[in-house]
Amino acid sequence: MTFDIVKVRADFPILTREVNGKPLVYLDNGASAQKPQVVIDAITQAYSHEYSNVHRGLHYLSNLATEKYEAVRGTIARFLGVSDERQIVMNSGTTEGINTVAYGWAMPRMEAGDEIILSVMEHHANIVPWHFLRERLGVKLVWVDVDANGDLDPDKVLGAITDRTRLIAVTHLSNVLGTVVDVKSICDGARERGVPVLVDGSQAAVHMPVNVEEIGCDFYAITGHKLYGPSGSGAIYIHRDRMAEMQPFMGGGDMIREVSKDAVTYNDPPMKFEAGTPGIVQMIGLGVALDYMMGLGMENIAAHERHLRDYARDRLDGLNWLNVQGRSVGKAAIFSFTLEGAAHAHDISTILDKKGVAVRAGQHCTGPLMEHLGLAATCRASFGLYNTTEEVDALVDALELCHKLLA
Amino acid sequence: MATDAFEDIVETFEFLDDWEDRYAHVIDMGKAMEPLDEALKVPATKVEGCASQVWLVPHVESGEFSFRGDSDAMIVRGLIAILGALYNGVPVAEVPKIDARAEFARLGLEENLSAQRSNGLRAMIERIRHSAA
């Protein structure tokens, strides 16, 4: 099918609104994406007609809600190329997913002196849980730099493996530089050395087709609100062998089989790792969002965004006072930049906002990367499936005004 | 009526029709403001909770309040300059009576004081009121 951008935009009601008297140009998709009407409708439908708690009721609505909720597990598996949906743990997003691995898998099996390899461009969600292990167990965090273009050399990652390496935790797509990491090569090499790999797929799954079985990773985390789904939804793929090694992270209802005063037995995985009443409606909404994306076609979305990337790169390169961070050839349509003449990212985003252009200013939850780049902050324009080349032009116009006012 | 210095700013802003001109003027005020001595940019003077870095050094002498401030963001510097016009030279007892949001509204800049804006202006005003208490 062809990708009809006019039709796609019409699916997202918020895109017709104005901000500060200007048409909204939403370029903060890296932080969170807007929702199509089908997702909004699904949420309304669920709460209006199909809501109850899941898994435990024997009544009609509970069965209906359970069916709808559990069907999402299959949708996520299909979306990620996972053949056995029991390897999908549903949760509130990547942060919960990685913490589940840190507490449930890593903490019980690591000790002082063990090493975790991280790239310098990780998001804090893929850093801070590992800092917990450093603080509490004395685990050593081993950092691998990116090159001047923002590329991460898989051989450099594999070269950092020692006999103490217990995990490699790496992003599939940098939320700041847009770099796409060759996680398959990292996983291939790591497997030969017996080192598990966790991939943070928060950004990648939004912009390109992902098949975790081809990648061969042990863990792959995604987050629903970036995938055009509700906030508070997400999932993590956990390879069945790692799942068998894992302890539950959170205890509560739904994850148990029997509880007595002296003993507890657990539900089978993946339920063992899903304590408490889940985000039922959020997950149902996420299922609809993933179906929406797959309906458009992930290849079509990727092609549209490559077109946006090329156009944006050319236009931004035409601004000789703008420094774009990240020159990786195959990067996603994510552009972090600073303005020469020491204008603060905060100033730039304030003026862009007055022009209706929404970008993110700050560190983007990537303290170590900012340190590596020697920057206090950047502005980031991150594109999504509904953005247009006209919006690139609006960004460039607004940046020219920034330059005029601030330089 | 606010201070003469602030009323002068109000008068200038009356001639500025659109936001571009108003922000251009705020930026100019930021550029013109005397920078804070680097030695004064220490944790004690730093105002937390801001997207940009903001420092504030209050001073009370003979019952009169004044402060000096700085930021690494130019628009915030300009807003600090306006805050200076609003608060500097005011008797300490009068400081809590100033409705900064209402005064900024006269300049069409009140959005900068909304609770969700992380530019630190609100936190600065808190600090000013606290140091004059």
TrEMBL record, chain A:
Keywords: Pyridoxal phosphate, Transferase. InterPro entries: Aminotrans_V_dom, Aminotrans_V_PyrdxlP_BS, Cys_dSase_SufS, Cysteine_dSase, PyrdxlP-dep_Trfase, PyrdxlP-dep_Trfase_major, PyrdxlP-dep_Trfase_small. It catalyses: (sulfur carrier)-H + L-cysteine = (sulfur carrier)-SH + L-alanine. SUPFAM superfamilies: PLP-dependent transferases. It holds the Pfam family Aminotran_5. Its EC number is 2.8.1.7. GO terms for molecular function: cysteine desulfurase activity; pyridoxal phosphate binding. One of its GO terms (biological process) is cysteine metabolic process. It is an enzyme of class 2 (transferase). Catalyzes the removal of elemental sulfur and selenium atoms from L-cysteine, L-cystine, L-selenocysteine, and L-selenocystine to produce L-alanine. This is Cysteine desulfurase.
TrEMBL record, chain B:
Pfam families: SufE (PF02657). Residues 10-130 form the Fe-S metabolism associated domain. Coiled coil: none annotated. PANTHER family: SUFE-LIKE PROTEIN 2, CHLOROPLASTIC, SULFUR ACCEPTOR PROTEIN CSDE. Belongs to the SufE family. This is Cysteine desulfuration protein SufE.
